[in-house]
UniProtKB/TrEMBL annotation:
Domain of life: Bacteria
Entry protein name: Putative auto-transporter adhesin head GIN domain-containing protein
Organism: Bacterioplanes sanyensis
UniProt cross-references to Gene3D superfamilies, sorted A to Z: 2.160.20.120
Every Putative auto-transporter adhesin head GIN domain range: 41-212
Length: 290
């Protein structure tokens, strides 16, 4: 019995030392860089692994991986048709020792149509000129996008991962948020803007921006802070406690049911209001009680 206890104590000490050695190996600055095989064209990336993925536009299809040697076999890059899956093996023995920066994948491709994030991995997208782009995030990872020019962009956020964009020049853009994700856009220039939010994430437009028309529907308690956005015509519907700030130049059609407020800048010639509840619709600079 005594021998068994001594062996058990020795084994536990050995196991702790092994775990510490593995952790040291994982996080040591001895990562290897290698080029992954690309078997064909793809324009759809699905990020499922808890890592960092960088996407940039180039003339050909290339993939580079930077990883600790110990984790090389855990990363799975799999192509299926036009889709590239960036995943993690089912054997997750080392997963809890890995942060998002432990493994990095850099992808270069001529064009991309769909980006999907399904876990805790982060996405970094460089400057691109595209036709259409769909970005879906159902996880907790964040996405950072540079300067993007496109015909149409669709964004759907269902988790807690945030989205930050430097600038968007696009004919049509649709933003849908159903979780706690925040969206921050530096500059936006578009003809048609559509926003649907049923969560508590905020949407912010930072710099001077423009849109011909905007249709905005807020059903939760997430706010839209977009006073730098100058819209020719806006249809706004609030149901809940969300607040919105925006600049409208010609026509505003607003409906408020709940406690949310609409504050608008500009001098629209036509303002149509429907109010039910304690919410308010007022021009910027007006007192809340006026």
């Amino acid at each position: 019995m005594c021998i068994h206890r001594l062996f058990k104590e020795w084994y536990m000490k050995w196991l702790v030392l092994l775990v510490l050695a593995v952790a040291s190996s994982v996080f040591a600055d001895d990562r290897i860089i290698y080029a992954a095989d690309v078997s064909g064209e793809f324009d759809h990336i699905v990020l499922q692994a808890p890592i960092t993925v960088e996407v940039q536009q180039g003339e050909d299809y290339k993939i580079w991986v930077k990883t600790p040697p110990l984790l090389r076999d855990n990363l799975v890059l799999r192509q299926k048709g036009k889709r590239l899956y960036v995943g993690w093996k089912a054997d997750e023995r080392w997963l809890n020792m890995v942060d998002r920066d432990s493994v990095k994948v850099k992808i270069e491709l001529p064009s991309i149509s769909v980006l999907e994030a399904q876990g805790s991995g982060n996405l970094y997208v460089g400057d691109m000129t595209l036709n259409n782009l769909t970005y879906n995030n159902s996880g907790s990872g964040d996405a950072y996008i540079g300067n993007l020019v496109a015909e149409k962009i669709s964004v759907a956020l269902q988790g807690s991962g945030d989205l930050e964009v430097i600038s968007l020049a696009v004919s049509r853009i649709a933003l849908a948020s159903m979780g706690s994700s925040d969206i921050s856009i530096g500059r936006l220039d578009t003809q048609d803007l559509n926003i649907n939010s049923a969560g508590n994430g905020d949407i912010t437009i930072v710099d001077q921006s423009s849109a011909d028309s905007a249709d905005i529907s807020l059903l939760g308690n997430g706010d839209v802070e977009a006073m730098p956005l100058h819209v020719v015509s806006a249809n706004i519907s609030l149901l809940g406690s969300s607040d919105i700030e925006i600049t409208v130049n010609e026509r505003l059609n607003a409906s408020v049911m709940g406690s949310g407020d609409i504050v608008y800048g500009g001098s629209p010639a036509s303002v149509d209001l429907n109010q039910f509840g304690s919410g308010d619709v007022r021009a910027a600079g007006e007192d809340n009680d006026s």
